[in-house]
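Researcher: Here's a chain I'd like modeled. Treat it as a single chain, no partners, no ligands.
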Amino acid sequence: MAGILARHGFRALATRSNVLLPTGAQASASFSTCSTVAPVEAASNFSRFNLSGSMAAVGGGMVLGWVGGGALGGLAVEADAEANSADLSAIRADIDQLVEEGHGPLLVRLAWHAAGSYDKSSNSGGSNGASMRFSPESDIGANAGLGLARDLLEPIKSRHQDISYADLWTLAGCVSIESMGGPSIPWRQGRVDAEDGSSCPPDGRLPGADAGQAGKTVQHIRDVFYRMGFNDKEIVALLGAHALGRCHEDRSGYKGPWTRAETTFSNEYFRELLENTWTLKKWSGPEQFEDPTGDLMMLPSDMALVWDKTFRGHVNAYAADQDAFYADFSAAFSKLMEVGVPNFNKPWW
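Model: Modeled as a single isolated chain. Structure tokens:
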């Protein structure tokens, strides 16, 4: 057991084997591991999982805890002990296998795009419903290529009927981030699936890569994220996910990776923004920026984070302190996965 815990960055307290503490870098990187959960744990109707994964339903039947060791690693999981019977450990193992095969960035993009359609003024969109299974949401340009991610998760859904598509997609994003070296993301079960496409959000809610001018691009980013309820610091933290993956010309028109470690979550994106030299790429495609080698690229919406003084301050902080980035990203991404979900009528944040 000690070896399993060590691989996931935990140590068990000698006097209470059901309490896990992070070790090493994860101790500070995972606000994810402690601070994010603390406001919820303070409520009387929450309790911890123990190391064997058993649950104690208390109060309203909800449980929350860090599942250390076992297949769930250090993921913060909250579940309804009575209503949800999905085998989360088995699902986590299946998702980990997809990450091992190199699909992690795509799964993160699916979770992000499923949730990033939320509009707080109308309380519509968001991860609840998994409405991207239907047209017109499945067909919009911003979601090009995500049918591949949905297809990858379909066999898992077939094996585990008790989890909703909406929960599976968001869990896949959280697990992928952790499995690629990122922070643990607080996640809870309770999203329900839409029966048809009538609840699909309108096109145009996801952030675009370029609004035509630097100032307009900066404002576009703020408009999109403010609509969902995020502030400038959370915006920069969330865009740090561009440490992962790459743009594909046949999907977005843009081409290339942001970093040289496309399947490793880190603060490298921020360091590249600040420490590399970025010039307009000379090509027939849409406006994007490249480094001197031509291997790496940044979108105008990425460069907006250094063009704007407030955004740049957060970029500087995250480039200098990966632990701070992990803490803020964990909180912001968990929030993104939950906005607009009716079953979470009292968000932890």
